[in-house]
Amino acid sequence: MNRRPGFLVYGLLTAFVLGSAAPLYWSFLLGSHTKEVAAQGVPPLLPGGHFWSNAERAIETIPFWKALANSMIVSTVTACSVVFFCTLAGYAFAKLRFRGRGPLLVFVIATMAVPTQLGVVPLFILMAEFGWAGSIWSVIVPWLVTAFGVFFMRQYLLDAVPDELIEAARMDGCSQIRVFWHVALPAARPAAAILWLFTFMQVWTDFFWPLIALPHGNPTIQVALNQLQSGFFKDYSLVLAGTTLATIPLLVLFIVAGRQLVAGIMQGAVKG
Amino acid sequence: MPQDLKPSGGDTRTVSPPLPPPATAGPPRSAWRQRLNRLDVRLSPYLYISPFFVLFLLVGMFPLAYTAWVSVHDWSLIGGKGDFVGLENFREVLDNPYFGKQLVNTVSIFLLSSGPQVVIAVTLAALLDTHLRARTWWRMSILLPFVVSPVAVAIIFGSLYGDRYGLINELIGHLGISPIQWHTDRFASHVAIASMVNWRWTGYNALIFLAAMQAVPRDLYESASIDGAGRVRQFFSITLPMIRPTMVFVIITSTIGGLQIFAEPRLFDQTATHSGGSDRQFGTITMLVYDFGWQLRDLGRASATAWLLFLVICAFAIVNYLLIRRLGALGEES
After folding, report:
1. Angle, CA A166 vertex, CA A165 and CA A172 arms, to 5°
2. pLDDT reading at B12 higher than 70
3. In this complex, which of B199, B309, B310 lies closest to A23 when CB atoms are compared?
4. Of A54-68, A245-259, B264-278, minimum mean pLDDT range
5. What is the C-alpha to C-alpha distance for residues B147 and A205, in angstroms, rounded to an integer?
6. CB-based contacts of A38, cutoff 8 Å, min separation 6
7. pLDDT of residue A220
8. Which residues of A are less than 8 Å from B45 in CB distance?
């Protein structure tokens, strides 16, 4: 399929991209009209100028800023934790020799496919035992490490760090941890950025567990949107203004780091 | 094994723990440093993998296993553990008419979302696997829906699929089709929910397929076109067989994820109960786990349901695997 694409290829791609963007525009459009206009189904094609007043109403009805702060904290902490611990473990699996390495790696790969979401009941009991019920710790802790993260970093580090480099550093008398710190970590940087991004997004968009774990007054942004929708679903201008507003942080991330997201998926970043 | 090399003992800067830095004093080749070095080599790997294993076992594997323990007890959300009841919870769940109904819903939504999604994603990838101008821009653009959370997607699409005033019903009205009851008609609601999943994931999967297509050796195409194969023929005889392993991967991951669907159907329901429509037309199994556990406050039945879903996912994975092996035997192994 190695030919100059013609009008048809560009046309089909354009149609697909428009379809990808349309629902987001729709969300902003309805969010920018008054309640009465939005209720009529087909609003004018241009925004109505009431977006901020609608958004303000949305912010008043749910603990919006608290939810946003919670989501920021949870996603940032888990992304950093996953990157650190999974790079450490991935490096050991890629470059160090130890007894049991094979079986342990098989275990990691096998658990990538395990639907851990189905463990919510004991997780709920466990979090109550730890005294974290209702606090954002209960959402952070289950995400501190991921099997996928270990596998992803291992695959990357296999080729990214030449064995000769490790040998040379060892010959110079570096301890293992120094080799990791000065040789492996710098080499792991591109993959670490990708893993950080994907973990951040996964945790940010997660809904099932936060809905169970967090009370009404202390939600993540997804749980807060759920409150907004269930309380005011007849008022589309309000709900969609809030939804649009809540989508902006990830849109910013997309604009800043879209290239890395594309690169990450094409390097085999899978669904969690 | 890296051999035990003679340490040169030059560097004295300390580094971050957990391991002792190279000893400072002491003549080289001291037996003590040799021993320390050996210990470093032997223990470090376990030290590096232990945080992952400890944490994962605690919050990943242990809860999944413990679910089985909870499922054979009377276990209330408020009162905690009660009597051992054997398989009673499982019997109650299986006898519950909603279990069967919601299992069918889950599978139906899954099939409606995976089938079209793979076809469209592969087509899209083939379109992207050409000499496009502004390649990166196109790749980024199709990924846009992926950064919208399932909750937001469900709210936005929920308004598009409004039964009375939704945009979609307006549009098909212009084509002379009478309004579809997206929130009450069972099949229509499955189509609506599947469209949300497809909207969010198709571009993502297209990029995975694109990566696989770019790994296909270009000279295969060249020799095929010398043999007179057209582009369509090339696509079916070269591209598709070459990306089959990737398709397997995408299908299996979307099975594991798709059968656990929760956010989209829950937010699509605009009634007060949020259980998936007035008569659970689009309730899913994960929603049932939530209903048993956190509406009826019965963790025993919630656990039993979670276990049953786990078995369903395993069964699907095995069926997938067998189907692929059969297909693999028919096609040529890559």
Report:
1. 90
2. no
3. B199
4. B264-278
5. 8
6. A30, A31, A235, A236, A237, A240
7. 97
8. 92, 96-98, 101
